[in-house]
Specification:
Layout lengths: L1 H21 L2 H23 L8 H20 L4 H18 L5 H5 L4 H23 L6 H24 L3 E3 L3 E5 H23 L4 H32 L14 H22 L2
Antiparallel strand pairs: 1-2
Helix pairs in contact: 2-3, 2-6, 3-6, 4-6, 4-9, 4-10, 6-7, 6-10, 7-8, 7-9, 8-9, 9-10
Length: 275
């Protein structure tokens, strides 16, 4: 499993970084939208749509609807801060749902239309935010910074959790995650923000550097919420992995869950703080 994860990462990493480095924002948005459509297909299983051949038309119909919504969002990209704010608001709501899970969602399980709408809130704000960040700086350095920040949170949480993890972070959502792991991930992100943030963002003074580090920690924390949020809906649907497209990783949603929350938060934070 670990070897599969490493091989998959080594294959995908040059593709992702190459696209960010060379592709202009419209092309980047198109690429990320393609990934979102794969996620939309996986989301149909969490919506409760049957996985039979007879129901495939409904699943493809949802993917087509997602494509239309993503295209419309790009046409209205001037309002991207509102899209980003909607995304951040949802993930804060998801955080509030976690302490009462699974009882709260089992008692009031969202229907297929509500989950279908939620799916659009998951990826549309994230995809447009990632494209906006990618266009903020030459060669998409700020977007690369964001991707590396999310990876740092993941790696730090894994290492700290494995060596020091004692107290469960959200046992009913993801029993393997610990508070010590989350703190370890945030600590690594703080070190990364100081080391890489100065080069990428060129802060003019201590105040701007502290703002950047603070924003990075908030984004990293929300990336953990994104991971837990998707896990919550997988558990609600009785699904272990969202798909099998990425060997060793599972599905697309399993791989981008943290970015779905981190993207809107980073874009909105950079916009508000004028960084």
């Amino acid at each position: 499993m670990l070897l599969q994860r490493v091989i998959t990462a080594l294959v995908l990493l040059p593709i992702v970084l190459g696209a960010i480095w060379f592709a202009p924002s419209p092309w980047l948005y198109g690429l990320f939208s393609g990934v979102a459509l794969l996620a939309a297909w996986e989301w149909t299983a969490m919506m409760g749509l049957p996985q039979s051949a007879e129901a495939a038309g409904r699943r493809w119909g949802y993917v087509l609807l997602s494509a239309v919504v993503l295209a419309a969002a790009w046409l209205g990209r001037a309002a991207w801060p509102w899209f980003a704010a909607l995304g951040v608001l949802w993930w804060l709501c998801a955080l509030c749902l976690m302490p009462g899970f699974p009882g709260n969602l089992q008692r009031h399980r969202p229907g297929i239309p509500a989950l279908g709408l939620l799916g659009q809130v998951l990826w549309v704000p994230a995809i447009i935010s990632l494209a906006i960040i990618g266009g903020m700086q030459e060669h998409g350095l700020r977007l690369i910074y964001l991707f590396a920040l999310v990876w740092a949170a993941d790696v730090g949480a894994y290492l700290a959790g494995r060596n020091f993890g004692r107290n469960k972070l959200a046992p009913n959502v993801s029993p393997g995650k610990t508070r010590e792991g989350a703190l370890g991930g945030l600590l690594l992100c703080a070190v990364y923000a100081v080391a890489a943030g100065g080069y990428v963002f060129q802060p003019t003074g201590l105040r701007q550097l502290l703002l950047l580090v603070g924003l990075s920690l908030l984004v990293a924390a929300l990336s953990i919420v994104g991971d837990l949020g998707i896990s919550m809906f997988k558990r609600l649907s009785g699904i272990k992995d969202s798909g099998k497209l990425l060997p060793g990783h599972g599905g697309i949603l399993d791989r981008i869950d943290s970015l779905l929350a981190a993207g809107p938060a980073m874009a909105l934070g950079l916009y508000w703080l004028r960084l």
